[in-house]
Amino acid sequence: MLKWTICFIKRGNELLLLNRTSEPGMGRWNGVGGKIEDKETPIESVIRETKEETGISIFEPRYSGQVTWISNGQKTGMYCYIAEVNNEFIYNTPVEVQEGILSWKKLEWVFHPKNKGVLPHLKEFLPIMFSNFSIYEHFCTFENDILVNHELIQLV
Predict the structure, then answer these.
(1) CA 130 → CA 3, 45, 81, distances in Å?
(2) What are the CA-CA distances from residue 140 to residues 9, 24, 87, 150, 153 (Å)?
(3) Which letter, b or e, does each residue of 61-70 get, where b requires 16 or more Cβ atoms within 10 Å of its Cβ?
(4) What gap in Å lies between CA 127 and CA 41, rounded to an integer?
(5) Which residues pair with 133 in a beta bridge?
(6) For residue range 110-144, what is the model confidence (pLDDT) as tens digits?
(7) CB neighbours (10 Å) of residue 118?
(8) pTM for the complete prediction?
(9) Nearest to 30 by CA among 72, 63, 78, 74
(10) Which DSSP letter does residue 3 get?
(11) How big is the CA angle at 9 (ends 130 and 2), to the nearest 5 degrees?
(12) d(CA 20, CA 127)
């Protein structure tokens, strides 16, 4: 079992992203989430973490796969979920929260090839999760914090 969950909240052509004030991913935009607590399922974790970090209650987020990597010689990773809200959903940003700053970001900006403001593997796995309902493990290899390989392993 993996230790982490992450959620990407989508509103039309925007994502609600968090610019983290601490590691991992300090200073870069990413989804919201965190560590799975004892006796908690991944879906329970992502619902709780999303509420804690944003104040937004999500219902039935879509499991979209997992992202894994090697850290300190051990494989680790996170279960990924997508929660879609309707275009009229109001959540004013930017807003500062304990973990950083939340803001709606346009998909074109998030996935722009020259964008260095998001975590590098996000631009690899997230478009696949949005466009494909197959479930994959996205195994990422980093060298000196640089993504050098992204491998897809079909799970379902």
Answers:
(1) 23, 21, 10
(2) 22, 15, 32, 5, 11
(3) bebbbbbbbe
(4) 25
(5) none
(6) 999 999 999 989 999 999 999 878 899 999 998 87
(7) 21
(8) 0.93
(9) 78
(10) S
(11) 75
(12) 21
